[in-house]
Each structure stands twice: as structure tokens, then as C-alpha cells.
Amino acid sequence: MARKKKKFKKSFGVEAAVPTGSMSDIVFLMLLFFMITTVFKTEKGLRITLPVAEMAERVPKQKRVAHVWIGKAGNVSIDDYTLSIDQVSAMVGKKMEKEPTLLIAVRCDEGAPYGTVEDVLEEFKEINALNVQFTTKKVQG
What we know:
Elements: H1 23-37, E1 52-53, E2 65-70, E3 76-78, E4 81-83, H2 85-98, E5 103-108, H3 114-126, E6 132-134, E7 137-138
Parallel strand pairs: 1-7, 2-5, 5-6
Antiparallel strand pairs: 2-3, 3-4
């Protein structure tokens, strides 16, 4: 008697399956968590009123920028540190050692004494920091 051939084979292996039903819930919970707990750094420089310019050029963004604020009373602040004019060259010099192409963004109050601005610029010249830009407000209208 001849043996009949079976049409189906039995499979003995167990298939592994990853449950993905709740994965979207987990992703949205993580997204919500990171949106709520993220802290954004705000500029804490001196409170200044920028002068108005009729024509202003946009400068391409750079990663390494040193922000220098000069207040109405002649206060000088670099990246949230209030300094005297004599300390400006040392602070910017240290930053330029780390990043030779450092851009210095100067933000002066419109009522800041020009003598202070001139002294700060002289400090920049002494350390050969010549990549300086001044920030202004754009004319409305």
C-alpha cells in the first residue's frame, strides 16, 4: 500500500511578534513630556532700547557669537556677565582662543554714552577682534 502525501506541513517553530498597538501612545506621551519639560534659554543681558536704522543688512547666522550689551548708564555685559571695560579684552580674548572666527554682536542702548562704546571698540582692536557687528531695530512701516 502506498503512502499518501500530506498537503500541509506542520510548523514547529514559534513566531516572535512585537506588540505595536500601544507604541503610538508611548511616542505621544514622550513627545508631550519633552515639550513640557524643555527649558529655553532667554537672553538675560542689560535692558536696552536699540537705535533705529533705515537700512539694515541681515548677517548670516553663526554658531559662535559673543553678545555684548552696552546699557544706558554705560554698563557693559558680555554673554550675561557684567564686566568693567578693562575686563572686556580678557573675556573676548578667551572666547577667541576657543573660536578664532568669533563674531561679536554689539547691542547698544540708543542713550548709551558714545565714550563707552568707543572704549569697548578700542578693547576689541587691542586683541585684534575685528569681526564686529552692531544690532539695530528695523524701521516700522
